[in-house]
Write a structure and sequence with these properties.
465 residues, alpha+beta, Pdz3 Domain, 2-enoyl-CoA Hydratase, Chain A, domain 1, eight-stranded mixed beta sheet, globular, disordered N terminus
Length: 465
């Protein structure tokens, strides 16, 4: 098939940043259905895929599109392919994926960590969108549900991806985790899912202890604009928050990324530019490495400096008052979140507290058909990121200086409450004073956990002509 690439917007997802590429394919003697989609997949994988030199030559186009896409991947294997792909994804609906990556989804507003309970799914509430149906139903952080029913169906391992993304009527049954067993009660909470736009900045606070002014920001996804908007309202809000931090003399900073699976590289650059110490617009934030086929064409189109991003000059930057930054992490911290950690490291001490992060030092792009002949799309890995010191060695994740894991059995406090184990530990590291019992290690309940999906771990770069 002969294809013509037409790029109108390019956004790259790297462990928390999204690359969105819109393509137009010119077809020659292709049928509808999987054959058309498979030709689209092959053309774009040959050009964009980071490991395009390792695509098998004998992959069969007679497979379904999802299976065909998966057959092209240089799949990670700890022994044979330790440098392999863990994150590329086939998309059943590319446009809904783009909406989700900009913070819009059909949800009750309760963000859950999912756990297996036999074939069924249990859920622990990590946080709740303010003003959402879940919040109005009295659902709060730390609630544990032994059973979840959506539109009359119990959520199981097999149907969870469908029900939790498209269902409407939720019944949450309160549960307990005792003696390594999940049980349910007869208490329920109900909520109706709707299309909601999440504000990525859930909370910001300032704590004062002696001469320490401690800024705290809970940041849950990297995107600048609400879905469907061109106004960077979240960048503007971020600037307002850091302006307040600077005006009030913040000299210690805690960035809470424990639930942040990534987003746009451009937004990671924005956030880092408010924090980094001693940087200018000539200071490298990150460098993106593409494959040998795409690199010369991209440099020809966008200039020799394509792929290198620099910090931004921000009058609200608080770096001059900081010696270090504390980052709260978990096993869900990925992509753009890890990019921020890695990109700040050459310029200041970065102290991580929590759990080992995912280890995604690569970025994806969403590729869809501009002519809308089919809804499917792909989100292949297209680049690897490096910081100003040319470091990209965190595929095993960042190991925290202090390990503090959240547990089903802990007492759960609101985010921002100094009794929260991770925040309490950061507060102790800064002040030497404990406001609560030290955060404790996980109790083993992790074995029930379902790993985050690829869409929870995105990093995107935007390039607009």
């Amino acid at each position: 098939m002969k294809a013509m690439r037409k790029t109108t917007k390019l956004a790259i997802l790297v462990c928390g940043c999204l690359l969105s590429v819109i393509w137009s394919c010119r077809q020659t003697e292709v049928s509808t259905g999987d054959a058309l989609v498979n030709d689209f997949i092959k053309v774009n994988m040959d050009y964009w895929y980071y490991w395009n030199d390792k695509i098998p030559a004998n992959a069969s186009k007679n497979l379904t599109s999802e299976n065909y896409f998966n057959s092209l991947l240089y799949v990670f294997d700890a022994q044979q392919r330790p440098d392999g792909d863990r994150f590329s994804a086939f998309l059943n609906n590319a446009e809904s994926t783009e909406a989700a990556l900009s913070g819009e989804s059909k949800t009750t507003g309760a963000r859950l960590a999912l756990y297996r309970n036999g074939d069924n799914i249990a859920g622990l509430v990590m946080y709740v969108f303010p003003g959402s149906p879940a919040a109005k139903a009295g659902i709060k952080r730390g609630d544990f549900f032994g059973r979840i029913t959506v539109d009359g169906q119990t959520v199981t391992v097999n149907n969870s991806s469908t029900l939790l993304s498209t269902g409407s009527n939720y019944v949450y049954t309160i549960g307990r985790f005792e003696n390594s067993t999940i049980t349910t009660t007869d208490q329920t909470k109900t909520a109706v899912a709707q299309a909601l736009q999440e504000d990525p900045m859930l909370l910001d606070s300032i704590y004062t202890r002696g001469n320490r002014k401690i800024g705290y920001l809970v940041y849950n996804r990297f995107y600048s604009t609400p879905n469907g908007s061109t106004t960077p309202v979240y960048d503007q809000k971020m600037a307002q928050i850091f302006n307040k931090f600077k005006a009030l003399g913040v000299n210690e900073f805690i960035l809470d990324l424990r639930y942040n699976g990534g987003g746009f590289i451009s937004t990671a650059r924005q956030l880092s530019s408010f924090i980094a110490k001693g940087v200018t617009d000539k200071t490298i934030f990150s460098r993106n490495e593409y494959n040998k086929k795409a690199t010369p064409e991209l440099q020809k189109q966008f200039g020799q400096g394509f792929g290198t991003d620099f910090f931004m000059v921000k009058p609200e930057n608080i770096g001059a008052n900081l010696q270090r930054v504390y980052v709260l992490t978990s096993s869900r911290t990925a992509s753009a979140s890890e990019l921020v950690i890695n990109s700040l490291k050459p310029f200041m001490e970065v102290i991580t507290i929590g759990d080992v992060t995912v280890g995604k030092n690569v970025g994806s792009i969403v590729i869809k058909d501009e002519k809308k002949r089919f809804a499917q799309g792909i989100m292949p890995i297209v680049l690897k990121t490096f910081n100003a010191a040319n470091q990209s060695d965190y595929t095993a994740g960042f190991t925290p200086k202090v390990t503090v894991k959240e547990s089903i059995n802990q007492t759960w406090y609101a985010l921002g409450d100094l009794r929260d184990p991770l925040l309490s530990e950061a507060f102790f590291q800064i002040t030497g004073s404990r406001t609560a019992r030290r955060g404790f290690l996980d109790d083993g309940s992790e074995r029930f956990k379902i790993a985050p999906t690829p869409l929870e771990m995105e990093m995107v770069v935007e390039i607009k002509k």
